[in-house]
Specification:
With 192 residues, the chain is an alpha+beta fold. It has a single domain (5-183), classed as Peptide deformylase (Peptide Deformylase, Alpha-Beta Complex). Helix content is 23%, strand content 29%. Strand 7 and strand 8 (190-191) form a beta hairpin. Bound molecules: nickel (II) ion. Nickel (II) ion (NI) is lined by residues 100-102, 142, 146.
Length: 192
């Protein structure tokens, strides 16, 4: 089932999400719905707050990056991160042009450290600890931030954020063209 994606301006995107208990009802279905929703919107990552659930859960599938030969190894890199905890970020800062399904029309270069170590439960609640780098780190950092109530625009300079104000207000109002269903905080309509 495709779930409408929560747009910028909804307070749920600013909440610190809560831990997911192993007996959370229908978790497998929720995860399947998240993948369906993400693929439909052509995203490479999606966090539960973006579908209106303030839970520490996010998914990634980096397969679309594999179209570029340099990233061929990312084909089929698909993960479910439950109760992810950031152990550390390290390496050199680098810039990458990020976007977010909750902030359609906005893409900006964001600076983040090269790698991240996360402890997390997989979909079977086996606790794992892994270090990621490159684009895998980048997408994981972005999605992890969603579970902390942080958006990529928070990482921009005050000037850049100021320049984006109009666009962000338009998104909150639903004055934006999107190719997937969204839920806008200042508009009651669901847009397709
Ligand atoms: Ni995002």
């Amino acid at each position: 089932m495709i779930i409408p994606i929560v747009a910028y301006g909804d307070p749920i995107l600013r909440e610190k999400a809560v831990r997911v208990p192993a007996d959370y009802p229908d978790l497998k279905n929720l995860i399947a719905d998240m993948f369906e929703t993400m693929y439909h919107a052509c995203g490479v990552g999606l966090a539960a707050p973006q579908i209106g659930k303030p839970m520490r859960l996010f998914i990634v599938d980096l397969t679309p990056f594999a179209d570029d030969e340099a990233h061929a190894h990312m084909k089929g890199f698909k993960r479910v991160f439950i109760n992810a905890e950031k152990i550390e970020e390290s390496g050199e800062d680098w810039k990458f042009n990020e976007g977010c399904l909750s902030l359609p029309t906005i893409r900006e270069d964001v600076v983040r450290p090269a790698s991240i170590t996360l402890a997390y439960d997989d979909e079977n609640f086996n606790r794992k600890r892994e270090t990621f780098d490159g684009l895998i780190a980048r997408v994981s950092q972005h999605e992890y931030d969603h579970t902390e109530g942080v958006l990529f625009t928070d990482k921009l300079s005050p000037l850049k954020r100021h320049l984006l104000k109009g666009k962000l207000n338009d998104i909150a109002k639903g004055s934006v063209e999107v190719t997937y269903p969204m839920r806008f905080p200042l508009g009651v309509k669901l847009r397709r």
